[in-house]
Amino acid sequence: MRWNTYLYVVYSILLVAALPACKSFVEVPPPVNQLNANSVFTDDKTATAAVVGIYSDMEFSAPVSIYLTLLQGLSADELASTSYDEAFQAFADNTYKPNNPYVAAVWALYANIYQANACIQGIQKSAALTAAVKDHLLGEAQFCRAFCYFYLVNLFGNVPLVTSTDYRVNDTVSRTPVAQVYDQIITDLLSAQNLLRTDYPTEQRVRPNKWTAAALLSRVYLYTGKWSNAEAGASAVIGSGSYTLSDVSSVFLNTSNETIWQLMPVSSFFNTQEAVTFIPFVPGLVPVYPLRDGLVAAFEPGDQRKQAWTDSTTIDSQTFYYPYKYKIAGSSPLNEYHIVFRLAEQYLIRAEARMQQGKLKEAIADLNIIRARAGLAPLSLLLNAAAVTSAIAQERRIELFAEFGHRWLDLKRTNQADAVIGTLKPSTWRPEAALWPVPQAQRNANPFLTQNKGY
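Predicted structure:
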């Protein structure tokens, strides 16, 4: 169903009002005091509510629920912008500056990290929680911290590594080398994987389980060049028997068995911010964030993903395509949740990890599973390493477009950003733009924070 103008405007107002304040570390509230800690972590129900609150904040606030997709898609070669908002246009041109409010909004992932740290601290100190609940909640909080740090370190490079709620320490924290941040991410995920159960504590997979931690861990291993670990991790998720690839038409429904983890909307009527953001809310309007022509042209003939996951509108003989993975802005009951991890990525992770180890036929076999679901012919098992590398990049580009910035991160980690983005945006691209600037407000509040090169 298409969204009417009135409800769209109302939702937009609510969304803007809900954006988190771009607070510095010194402005984060003091740690949970003894009275509050005793109150929150003295029984399973209130402790669970504290952890679940992290997911609600992720979905209600913009950094996770839309900005990680929108801003990275604009930065890469996925999305264009017809917005009058110069701060958004700066991402489409890769000319963002330290005072850009949306850069600051993404930095606000530290608010979720603070929540996770407070939960970890409270759970570990509590002697009142039942053992099973305590383990699972601790694993969930560690997973959430790792998830936030994964994006911060990939978007900003060296970032402060904060694992406590001591505001006196956070007040003067400096930036931590990327490798050390990744070490903490891996430590958190290994612990979470051991603590979390294989089943989901709630219906519709809205809280992480063991395989959610394993899915992120396999991605982290891929990004850090630990190929055998990435292959083993992805194989464990694939072989768990908990997930199957859905038909392309139902991948993004909240009942999809492909989903590993999804965020539940906080409203009883609004589905996802992707649908609100990408689908023109009045017929005949140019999409605010249309797909770039290069991405549209990259779909192979007969690829069912183009028909199922994109839509278009034609204005004055010009056709504009836009993401259509999420199709419902509002409905009751809700039919679409915000999918964060799904099985298809694990096949693509394993394919790349296998290719890097010289297991070309096995890598091609994984790609062909994804291609078969899209209605495409299988690739030849005789492709050489260069052809397999290219095929992996192609499948990742098409399968994961407009999802959490996969394309932007892929271009950077494979050292293709200069060639691809530089060719697409020759007048505005510069290599330093591969990292976003540290928000100026944060540096003003904390003199120990240095700036990225070029800003």
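Summary: Strands lie at 259-263, 310-315, 318-323, 338-342.
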